[in-house]
Amino acid sequence: MSVTTTRTDLLTIEGLGHVYEGKQRHEAIGRLDFAVPEGAFVSIVGPSGCGKTTMLRCLSGLMSPTRGTVLLGGAPVIGVPRDLALVFQDYSRSLFPWRTVAGNIAFVLPRKQLSAAERKERIDESLDAVGLSAAADKYPWQLSGGMQQRVAIARALAYRPTILLMDEPFASVDAQTRAELEDLMLAVRQRFGMTILFVTHDIDESVYLADRVLVLSKSPSTIVASLEVNLPSPRDQVGTRELDDFVQLRSKIARMIRDQSTRRPSAPAIGDSESPS
C-alpha cells in the first residue's frame, strides 16, 4: 500500500515484518507497506500491544526487522541514519540531568561540522521554537515534565533531521500540557517544514495533528486503513475538535480499533485508503 501523493516519498516501508524468537515465539508485525511523503505529518494508531513501538525501532534502525525493507530517501536503513531523529515517550530518561538545557541540545551537534557560533545559533533557534529561550541555563530536573519534553523536541530540531519519529511522546503529561505540546508540534512543523511520523494511542490526537492516519490491526499487525485528514488549518484545540469531520473521523477510527481489539482480522486490508465519511 502506498500513500498517494504528488510529493516525493521520503520514507518507504515494504513488506516489513518482525518476529521475536525465544521460548515463546511472538510475531509482533505481520506485514506493513506504506510511505511517508516529504513534508507530511502521518499518525499511526492501533490496539494496545499491536507492535507500534517495534515498528518504530525497525524504521529508525535501532532494530533489524525479520523481513522487509525500510528506505529513507531511497537508501536502505542499516543502523540509525544521520538524518533521522527519534523522540521517546520517556523524556526524563532521554535527557542528561548533569547537563543544562543548552548542554543537552549541544550534545547532538557535531563539533567538527559546526562552528561555535553555528552551534549557539542552532541551540537558540531550537529553544525559541519550543518556547524555552529563558531556560537555556537550567537543568532538566528543574523543569516540569512538559518542559522536559520540549527540551527533547528542541534537541531533535537542532539536529535538523529530514524526518522526525515520535513514539507516544505526550503520553506521560497531563491533559493541558498535552494540548500545548500538540499545538507546539503543529507550529514546529510549519516553521521547519519537517516530515513527522507520530505514533500515539490517543485517537483524537492522531486526527488533530496529522494529514493522514494509519490504523494498525491487532498483532501481528497489518494496516487496515489509511485515512486522509481533511481538516482546515490552522487547527484549534476547541474549534477543530467540534467540527463534524473531526468527530466522524475519530469515531470511525475508534470503531476500527475496537473491532481489532476484540477479534483478529479475517484478512489484512492492505491499501485501504479512505476519506472521512
Walk me through what this model shows.
With 277 residues, the chain is an alpha/beta fold. The chain has two domains: 1-83 and 162-277, Rossmann fold (3-Layer(aba) Sandwich), CATH 3.40.50; 84-160, no CATH class. 34% of the residues lie in helices and 24% in strands. The protein is built from nine helices and eleven strands. The chain has helices at 52-60, 91-94, 101-106, 116-129, 145-158, 175-192, 203-209, 239-242, 244-262, and strands at 9-20, 26-37, 41-45, 67-72, 75-76, 84-87, 163-167, 195-199, 212-216, 221-228, 273-274. Strands 1, 2, 3, 4, 5, 6, 7, 8, 9, 10 and 11 form an eleven-stranded mixed sheet that branches. The longest helix is centred in the last third of the chain and has 19 residues, at 244-262. Mean pLDDT is 88; it is low at 1-5 and 265-277.
Summarize the structure.
With 277 residues, this protein is an alpha/beta fold.
